[in-house]
Amino acid sequence: VQLQAFGGGLVQAGGSLRLSCAVSGRSFANYNMGWFRQGPGKEREFVAGIGINFSGGNTYYADSVEGRFTISRDNAKNTVYLQMNSLKPEDTAVYYCAARATRVVITTDYDYWGQGTLVTVSS
Length: 123
Fold this sequence. Notes:
Layout: E1 2-6, E2 9-12, E3 17-24, E4 32-38, E5 45-50, E6 59-61, E7 69-74, E8 79-84, E9 93-100, E10 112-113, E11 117-122
Parallel strand pairs: 2-11
Antiparallel strand pairs: 1-3, 3-8, 4-5, 4-9, 5-6, 7-8, 9-10, 9-11
C-alpha cells in the first residue's frame, strides 16, 4: 500500500487548507485512515481518523482540532481528505496520512504511512 499526501502550504491564521491523501496498492475501502502531524520539536500526534464504515459518526478528532478540521473519504477515488478551517499558528506541522487494517486508534500504530506534507500557518 502506498500513500501520498499533498495539499500543504503557507496560509495565514484564520485561513483554510484541504489536504488529500491518495492511496494505491490495495483496496482502499478496507482500511481505516488517520491523519497525524508533527510540529517542530514535537512528537507525532493524532489529528483525525475515519473508519471503514464512515457513515454515522465513525470519525474521530483530537480535542485541539475538533470543530475546525473535518476528515472525509472518497472510496471511489481512493482518497482521504482533511479540511482544515480557522487555522492557527500552532497547527504548523508536517501532516501525515496513515492506513490501518483494524480500527482507528490515536497512537501511531498504523500499518502504512505517507511521506508528509508541510503546513505553515503565519500569524
